[in-house]
Description:
Blueprint: E1 4-9, H1 14-30, E2 40-44, E3 47-52, H2 55-71, E4 79-81, E5 85-86, E6 92-98, H3 104-116, E7 121-126, E8 129-134, H4 137-149, E9 157-159
Antiparallel strand pairs: 1-8, 1-9, 2-3, 3-6, 4-6, 5-6, 7-8
Amino acid sequence: MAENSFDIVSKVDMQELNNAITQAVREIETRFDFKGSKSSINLEKDDIVVVSDDEYKLKSVIDILQSKMIKRGVPIKNMEFGKLEPASSGTVRQKIKLKQGIEQDISKKINTLIRDSKIKVKSQIQGDSIRVTGKSLDDLQAVIAMLRGADLQIDLQFTNYR
């Protein structure tokens, strides 16, 4: 019987993220409570830089950005918030790092979860992704369902399902 497999990855679609940022900036420009504000959102490689007048407005800008990301299907679990820092002309800035790929300690945790579930599949870490193989498609579906229910710090996608 043939072996079936799928890959577990954690990636952020940069095009969709860019679209979400554009929508958020457009909303900030048209909202009355941001009139005359120096709020902005910029994408720099794997970082999002959010600038605003004060901490309260910065949190509002981040809320708007997260709502646009959710609407576009971009995972917000993969965001790692930096500390608030003062910026030029009385504004505050916060960097948000985007996690791409599965870190080694999280992949070991996923491997342990799969092994402890007693489902008849094999899992192996391949760089920043994990390949799960098994004879039964039902077993692979059970692993996907189990991992979706698990409380992990990152958002997982399941690719190359065959």
